[in-house]
Design brief:
transmembrane helix, 56% helix, alpha+beta, 2 domains, 4-stranded antiparallel beta sheet, Macrolide_Exporter_MacB, transmembrane, 15% strand, membrane
Length: 418
């Protein structure tokens, strides 16, 4: 054990001397490892961070949540012209499904209204994601209230002129004032603010911080919400423990009967599951990981060649010393381990520099206000992966030079070195 500790110490000294004596050559050789480790760990950390932020955003939603609408949230084989002829999902569909489909925990009807302006006295915020939706959305999306309350079923059914604002909207519109009870204008009509949502931060799609919720029936009073009117959807959250496949079949059968579709006629609606969207997100993130590995792998390959090159040069420069060591009794494995350790140490140094740069990048991103609530997570697992990769690169890059050094004949080595 003491022999190998001494060997490690000597190899470390040789590696440091190589750094000192051949600064430019060593710098160029290690640059590939540094860039490779930086690229891989930065990509992995960025993808992990994106995945975590998306999962946090979706954490309040049940993955079995379904959207019944004329639109498909993913790829479909149905031609565009055929989908365009599908009727809109109207409020009557919501009422029918609510009454006739069993095992529903929460249900809501939403109108895809788009961006609107919200005015309060002299303040105006444009392009707000105004969401006309029935009160069941609070249970489906697990909306948390910071101030006031969410509108109840009676207000939802009657189409009361009330609104619940997202945290950022309320903050920008009212500054330091208490929003509850204040009157704002949306669609040119007066609505009373009855609630403000808790801050959730940015994430996938539109954050509730930037939304305003009001009863769908309020908008239906002055906008066409029929089968040919503005787009809408029925959002359904099944009860826990329900067989989702069987639930979806029952839902489709009953809704087909409601729309008068015959057995040989295709559906004229889509049932989009949130789990399908999360699976698509996971697939995209997986693809990003693979692409990151492929691109960064070329940098690691260059770095490995750089380490191998500097080790061959090191063997050439120390041929005389190797001959002397072997003539004094040093065994082949001693010489082999000496150069393997040196190559590994050099690669690990390059890897640690790469990890240091990733840490600097993550720190600057997390301190920056440009990225908002997005947090760059550099996990201990990714850092350990960078260290292991560096070690493997060093071992692979140093194995051939080390073997060539260990097989040198001592007499020839001393003569060649002279």
């Amino acid at each position: 054990m003491l022999l190998y500790l001494r060997l490690f110490k000597e190899s470390f000294s040789f590696a440091i001397n190589a750094l000192r004596n051949n600064k430019l050559r060593t710098f160029l050789s290690l640059l590939g490892v540094t860039i490779g480790i930086f690229s891989i760990i930065a990509v992995l950390a960025a993808v992990d961070s994106l995945d975590k932020n998306i999962q946090d955003q979706l954490s309040g939603l049940d993955k079995n949540t379904m959207y019944v609408t004329k639109y498909s949230f993913g790829p479909t084989d149905i031609p565009r012209w055929q989908r365009d002829n599908y009727p809109q999902t109207e409020n009557d569909s919501y009422e029918f499904i609510k009454r006739n489909v069993p095992d529903i925990e929460a249900i809501a009807y939403v109108i895809f209204a788009g961006g609107e302006s919200i005015k309060y006295e002299g303040e105006t915020i444009s392009g707000v994601d105004v969401t006309p939706v029935s009160n069941g959305i609070a249970d489906i999306e697990n909306l948390k209230i910071e101030q006031g309350r969410f509108y109840n079923e009676a207000e939802s059914v009657s189409g009361a002129s009330v609104v619940v604002l997202g945290y950022s909207i309320a903050e920008n519109l009212f500054k330091n004032l208490n929003p509850i009870g204040k009157t704002v204008r949306i669609y040119g009509r007066k609505l009373t603010v009855i609630g403000v949502l808790k801050k959730v931060g940015s994430g996938l799609g539109d954050s509730s911080d930037e939304q305003a919720f009001l009863p769908a029936n309020f908008v239906r009073q002055f906008r066409n919400g029929g089968s040919e009117g503005i787009p809408g959807a029925v959002i359904i959250k099944p009860k826990k423990g329900v067989d989702i496949g069987a639930f979806e079949q029952v839902l489709k059968q009953k809704y087909r009967a409601y729309r008068g579709l015959k057995a040989d006629e295709p559906d004229n609606f889509f049932v989009n599951k949130l789990s399908g969207m999360t699976d698509a997100i996971d697939s995209v993130i997986g693809t990003m990981n693979v692409m990151g590995w492929i691109i960064s792998g070329f940098s690691l390959l260059v770095g490995g060649f750089g380490i191998a090159n500097i080790m061959f040069v090191s063997v050439k420069e120390r041929t005389n010393l190797i001959g002397i060591q072997k003539s004094l009794g040093a065994k082949n494995r001693f010489i082999l381990f000496q150069f393997l350790f040196e190559a590994t140490i050099l690669a690990v140094i390059g890897g640690l520099v790469g990890l240091f740069f990733v840490w600097l990048v993550s720190l600057s991103i997390n301190l920056s206000e440009v990225t908002g609530d997005f947090k760059f997570a550099l996990s201990a697992g990714n850092m350990m992966l960078g260290f292991v990769l560096s070690t493997i690169i060093g071992l692979i890059s140093g194995v051939i030079p080390a073997i060539s050094a260990s097989r040198l004949d001592p007499v020839e080595a001393i003569r060649t070195g002279m």
